[in-house]
């Protein structure tokens, strides 16, 4: 698979310090006073609540109005990890709002997200693999976190320690009033997404910027049962506006695959080589994929827990989609207003959140999937079946929704609404 050269970011954390910035002075790397100490899933008590909260946030974002034919791609994992890191520097109403939003508070919260990050770390790999012609036999899930801070700022050492101990976050100083700060942010984003996202969404230089949290997630995996390119053909796809377009449609006949139906929607689970799967939901005629709620996804999870299988003749479009999303409005609507005003981030300093942005990219073809996301939070100093049955036909020729999940935790890594697969 030749990955697309497209960009997509989402404001989260990042854990690698770049050394490729073409600046006269290298950024000063700081460290926490404790080493990274990953938490085991068995030791974290709020995993289910954290995953449920991440899914609820994602479905709310995907339900927002969009332009006709517009595709939306997000990374729930990236956004949740970024906000969990932000919570380390929050107190008062901001901390309470973030705890409600993330599904857990205090030590339960940091242990839950640290454990989720560590579980994904089983598939850690070099992000440069996405530049190769062939996808890796074993999935690669690269995750990185970073805090970039204005030179001279002195946040509470406990905040830095928690970012290092639980999130393995790198910590770097820069001068946000300089052009070099933009180069630092951009190069980190590009390196940790394998070049799929080339630039940071943070506008710099900005003399009022004091902190930026960055998180990058890069996923590359081949299907357990690849599609045959010889069967791919241009077939009609009806977009959300009712327009009929010719889309590249892949076809595969599965002798046995996870499949269920819910509220007249068809849902199929397509496994990758190991560790991850993609759920594709084709709503009933006359229904929009944006209507699919967190409760609906939970019902799907419960159905798949029974391991239902069917013989399915699947037709699925190839996709190259990218999204650049300012999340401030939806986050404030979901109760995170306190992080945008007041003094509730005082452990970091006299700051509050100026912007939360996510870029995300998704490419699906016969071999597998490549996806990347970057979440960035800019903080400023001023306010801003066993019986034989007939094969089921599932022809995805109208708008649909999907998610890529980690098998062990069910954490949604990426979710999307595809209204027109011919559009990037």
Secondary structure tally, helices: 8
- Give the N-terminus to C-terminus distance in angstroms: 17 Å
CATH superfamily of the largest domain: Antithrombin, subunit I, domain 2
Overall structural domain count: 2
Mean pLDDT: 90
Helix/strand-derived category reads alpha+beta
What is the H/E string? Answer: EHEHHHEHEHEEEEEHEEHEEEEE
Architecture of the largest domain in CATH?
2-Layer Sandwich
Number of strands: 16
Percentage of residues in strands: 25-35%
- Helix amount: 10-25%
- Please mark out the parts with pLDDT under 50 across 5 or more consecutive residues, or reply none: 2-24
Radius of gyration, taken over Cα atoms and rounded to an integer in Å: 21 Å
Any idea what the shape is?
Answer: globular
Reading off the top of the CATH hierarchy, the class of the largest domain is best stated as Alpha Beta
CATH topology of the largest domain: Antithrombin, Chain I, domain 2
Largest sheet: 9 strands, mixed
Briefly characterize the structure.
Belongs to the serpin family. The chain is built from eight helices and 16 strands.
Description:
This is Serpin family protein. Residues 59-421 form the Serpin domain. This protein is of the alpha+beta class. It folds into two domains: 29-221 and 321-363, Antithrombin, subunit I, domain 2 (Antithrombin, Chain I, domain 2, 2-Layer Sandwich), CATH 3.30.497.10; 223-319 and 364-370 and 389-418, Alpha-1-antitrypsin, domain 1, CATH 2.30.39. The chain contains eight helices and 16 strands. It has helices at residues 47-62, 76-87, 92-102, 106-120, 157-167, 179-192, 294-304, 328-336; strands spanning 28-30, 72-74, 140-150, 170-174, 209-222, 233-238, 244-262, 265-271, 276-282, 309-317, 319-326, 352-364, 368-380, 392-395, 400-406, 412-418. Strands 2, 6, 7, 8, 9, 10, 14, 15 and 16 form a nine-stranded mixed sheet that branches. A seven-stranded mixed sheet has the order 1-4-3-5-13-12-11, sandwiched between helices. Strand 7 and strand 8 (265-271) form a beta hairpin. Helix 1 crosses helix 2 (76-87) and helix 2 (76-87) runs antiparallel to helix 3. The two termini are 17 Å apart.
């Amino acid at each position: 698979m030749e990955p697309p050269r497209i960009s997509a970011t989402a404001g989260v954390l990042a854990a690698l310090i770049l050394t490729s910035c073409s600046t006269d002075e290298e950024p000063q790397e700081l460290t926490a006073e404790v080493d990274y100490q990953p938490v085991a899933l068995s030791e974290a008590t709020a995993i289910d609540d954290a995953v449920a909260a991440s899914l609820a946030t994602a479905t709310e974002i995907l339900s927002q109005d969009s332009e006709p034919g517009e595709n939306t791609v997000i990374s729930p994992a990236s956004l949740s990890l970024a906000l969990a890191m932000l919570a380390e520097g929050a107190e008062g109403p901001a901390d309470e709002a973030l705890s409600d939003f993330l599904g857990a508070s205090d030590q339960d919260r940091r242990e839950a997200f640290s454990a989720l990050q560590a579980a994904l770390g089983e598939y850690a790999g070099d992000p440069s693999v996405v530049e190769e012609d062939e996808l890796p036999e074993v999935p690669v899930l690269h995750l990185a976190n970073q805090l970039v801070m204005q030179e001279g700022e002195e946040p509470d050492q406990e905040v830095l320690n928690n970012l290092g101990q639980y999130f393995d976050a790198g910590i770097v100083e820069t001068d946000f009033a300089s052009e070099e700060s933009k180069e630092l942010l951009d190069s980190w984003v590009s390196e940790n997404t394998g070049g799929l996202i080339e630039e940071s969404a943070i506008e710099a230089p900005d003399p009022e910027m004091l902190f930026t949290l960055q998180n990058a997630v890069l996923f590359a995996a081949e299907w357990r049962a690849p599609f045959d390119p010889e069967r791919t053909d241009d077939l009609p796809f009806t977009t959300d506006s009712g327009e009929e377009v010719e889309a590249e449609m892949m076809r595969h006949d599965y002798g046995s695959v996870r499949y269920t139906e819910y509220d007249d929607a068809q849902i199929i689970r397509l496994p990758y080589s190991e560790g991850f799967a993609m759920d594709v939901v084709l709503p009933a005629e006359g229904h929009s994929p944006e209507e699919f709620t967190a409760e609906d996804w939970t019902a799907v999870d419960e159905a798949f827990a029974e391991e239902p299988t069917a013989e399915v003749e699947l037709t699925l479009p190839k996709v190259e989609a990218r999204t650049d999303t300012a999340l401030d409005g939806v986050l404030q609507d979901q109760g995170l207003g306190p992080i945008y005003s007041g003094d509730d981030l005082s452990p970091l300093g006299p700051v509050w959140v100026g912007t939360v942005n996510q870029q995300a990219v998704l490419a699906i073809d016969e071999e597998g999937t490549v996806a990347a996301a970057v979440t960035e939070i800019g903080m400023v100093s001023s306010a801003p079946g066993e019986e034989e049955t007939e094969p089921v036909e599932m022809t995805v020729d109208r708008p649909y929704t999907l998610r890529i999940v980690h098998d062990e935790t069910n954490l949604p890594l990426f979710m999307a609404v595809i209204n027109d697969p011919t559009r990037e």
